[in-house]
Automatic annotation (TrEMBL):
SUPFAM superfamilies associated with the record: S-adenosyl-L-methionine-dependent methyltransferases
Keywords of the record: Methyltransferase, Transferase
THUMP-like domain mapped to chain residues: 379-452
GO BP annotation list: methylation
Annotated organism of origin: Micrococcus flavus
Gene Ontology terms, MF aspect: methyltransferase activity
Name the UniProt record assigns to this protein: SAM-dependent methyltransferase
InterPro entries, alphabetized: SAM-dependent_MTases_sf (IPR029063), Thump-like (IPR041497)
Gene3D superfamilies assigned: Vaccinia Virus protein VP39
Length: 460
């Protein structure tokens, strides 16, 4: 048995490369061009009425739809704007649900929009912190602001991009408790939030993390290249404000401020964000947290959370199976931690929560192993049926001899992609008929293995 330890850094997000000044080379979000989405025609009553009357256009031929609308007498610019919005609504339906049919969207704003179920959790936390007013700096499409005002919080939403601000104003128009201000977040904050007598207002930020240009968008990794930068966020917290800031889930732990609670959130297994909480919204006994939201439950969304009071050094050490223990793995349960647990570096904390017999598969991998384990919302279970070497020829023979027709592949610590292995093992990626098999590829010690497993949880 390998000695007691925590997962090594290879199972964690990599820190971005830095230049001599300590900043990651690359674009800065503040240099973005304005959003090119044309909103003018759908801000007019006739355009909005036509858009709402169209409904879901998924599966329809856009050229035929455009020809029909123009034949009905609608001006070309109105038809173009309406079809753009209809297409964005169709694209955003999976993320935004039925709310999408009441929203105006922009191409770039949709990419960073908060899912309603998560925005509601943000609003609930601020409400529980005792604040009555929220300033949303860089509000985007206003979806977080929409959740705030629905929770009974007076909301001021500030957005510098005039097109995006117009979309936010339209999305919030039915809520008198919300007000949209077109302006620069830093300048607005300097004028309105620096005074100590305005500390009753909580501040919410969702900084831009991409630089938009006419040729597309470049992802920004350096927190100081966000717009606003992370140092601006911490300066607001230092003034005494209650602050929440939504960041990408890959934010390096080295960049986390010491006086913040960091909470990573996944929705139906997809890690969507990391939020830093300061002031009254911060839980003093929590430094890192992993929150899993399951929207598939028939009785409504369910949440499960794992927390730690300290940084990475506070996570417990856990034994590892290691290469010498692979022969005894058949029949045991392999547990795949939720992505939020992995991003929060809480893998060994989850192991302890699951029971005393839970071990790491390898010190470098975020997989856990147990003789048995009950269902847990922060980990998906698989029963190990066989342990194979990761040898393509041998796996091709195994698939042929056991009648594999469909193959799911998961992997950690190996370079081959699931798509490539599936193609090489099955010949074309999938065979008609045959059984459904699942392989987990992992480097344990110095050897690469393919674990044949049976999922024990729905969606695993």
């Amino acid at each position: 048995m390998a000695r007691s330890q925590r997962p090594a850094r290879s199972s964690r997000p990599r820190r971005p490369r830095t230049d001599g000044a300590g900043r990651a080379p690359g674009p800065r979000a503040a240099d973005s061009a304005t959003d090119p989405t044309c909103l003018g025609p759908v801000l007019e009553p006739e355009g909005r009425a036509l858009l709402d009357a169209l409904g879901d256009v998924s599966g329809q031929d856009p050229l035929a739809l455009s020809s029909r609308l123009r034949a009905e007498g609608h001006p070309p610019e109105r038809v173009a704007a309406v079809l753009t919005q209809a297409g964005l609504r169709a694209k955003g339906r999976a993320r935004l649900g039925d709310d999408v049919d009441r929203l105006l969207l922009t191409r770039d704003g949709l990419e960073q929009a908060t899912r309603p179920v998560v925005a509601d959790l943000h609003a609930a936390r601020l409400h529980a912190a005792g604040v009555g007013r929220v300033v949303d700096l860089g509000c985007g499409l206003g979806l977080d602001a929409l959740a705030f005002v629905r929770a009974g919080l007076e909301t001021v939403a500030v957005e510098r991009d005039p097109t995006v601000a117009a979309a936010a104003a339209a999305n919030l128009a039915a809520h008198p408790g919300a007000r949209v201000v077109e302006g620069d977040a830093l300048a607005w904050a300097a004028e309105h939030l620096a005074a100590a007598d305005d500390l009753g207002a909580a501040v919410w930020l969702d900084p831009a993390r991409r630089r938009l240009s006419g040729s597309g968008a470049d992802r920004v990794f350096d927190p100081e290249a966000f717009s606003p930068p992370l140092s601006f966020v911490t300066s607001l917290a230092a003034l005494g404000h209650t602050v929440g800031v939504k960041l990408g889930p890959g934010i390096p732990h080295e960049a986390l401020p010491a006086d913040a609670e960091a909470q990573w959130t996944s929705v139906d297994g997809d890690v969507t964000e990391a939020v830093l909480w300061f002031g009254a919204a911060r839980r003093l006994d929590v430094r890192r947290a992993a929150l899993a939201v399951d929207t598939r439950a028939p009785d409504g969304p369910r949440t499960a959370e794992l927390t730690s009071p300290g940084g990475e050094e506070a996570s417990p050490a856990v034994d590892a199976v290691g290469e010498e223990g692979m022969a005894g793995l058949v029949g045991q349960v392999l547990i795949e931690p939720d992505g939020a647990v992995i991003r929060a570096h809480l893998v060994t904390d989850l192991a302890v929560a699951l029971g005393p017999d839970v071990r790491l598969l390898d010190p470098h991998l975020a997989y856990l192993v147990a003789p048995d384990a009950p269902a847990h919302p922060l980990g998906r279970r698989h029963r190990v049926l066989a342990v194979h070497d990761l040898d393509v020829k041998a796996l091709r023979r195994w698939a042929r001899e056991t009648g594999v027709g469909r193959l799911d592949v998961k992997k950690r610590g190996v370079s081959i992609t699931p798509e490539e292995l599936r193609r090489r093992v099955l010949g074309g990626g999938r065979r008609s008929g045959g059984r459904h098999a699942t392989l987990v590829l992992a480097r344990v010690g110095d050897r690469r293995h393919a674990l044949e497993v049976e999922p024990l949880d729905a969606g695993a």
